[in-house]
């Protein structure tokens, strides 16, 4: 709860019900966290996007309610995880990770993992067909 208070003071939109382990969080003003979100150890939340030859772009990160970000995962700018989604360990969420979700009912059972993160079926972790 003390980390949540500090994040609020620094400008992040964070409820007291969110859980943060030791994580790397940059540019707090562009961070919006939903209720009951778990951000595990060594997760990196960085709203700035650096592309060679282009100016630095800063875009918000939104983690919907009941979202879980597993250890060592990374969320960069433009990331929006829908409610209930899980981002697997050592994964990297790029822009529009919710494009495949469709609605909250599907997203609540969705797990994404990999580099970049792709959908997996929860039973057996079989890769889902790509779009």
Kindly list the characteristics that best describe this protein.
131 residues, mainly beta, six-stranded mixed β-sheet, 27% strand
Task: Write up what this structure looks like.
This protein has two helices and 15 strands. It is globular, with a radius of gyration of 14 Å. It has a six-stranded mixed β-sheet, with no helix packed on it. The chain has 131 residues and is mostly beta strands. It has helices at residues 2-9, 104-107; strands spanning 19-20, 24-25, 31-33, 38-39, 44-46, 48-49, 57-58, 61-63, 68-69, 74-76, 80-81, 86-87, 92-93, 111-113, 118-120. A hairpin with a 7-residue loop joins strand 6 and strand 7. The protein starts with a helix and ends in an 11-residue tail after the last strand. 9% of the residues lie in helices and 27% in strands. Mean pLDDT is 79; it is low at 96-108 and 122-131.
| Overall pLDDT | 79
Distance between the termini: 40 Å
Low-confidence stretches: 96-108, 122-131
| Computed CA radius of gyration, to the nearest angstrom | 14 Å
**Strand runs, count:** 15
Instruction: Characterize the overall form.
Output: globular
Instruction: Characterize the largest beta sheet: strand count, sense, and whether it forms a barrel.
Output: 6 strands, mixed
SS class: mainly beta
Q: What percentage of residues falls in helices of 4 or more residues? A: under 10%
If strands are numbered along the chain, what order do they take across the biggest sheet?
1-4-9-12-14-15
- Relative strand content: 25-35%
Order of helices and strands: HEEEEEEEEEEEEEHEE
Number of helices: 2
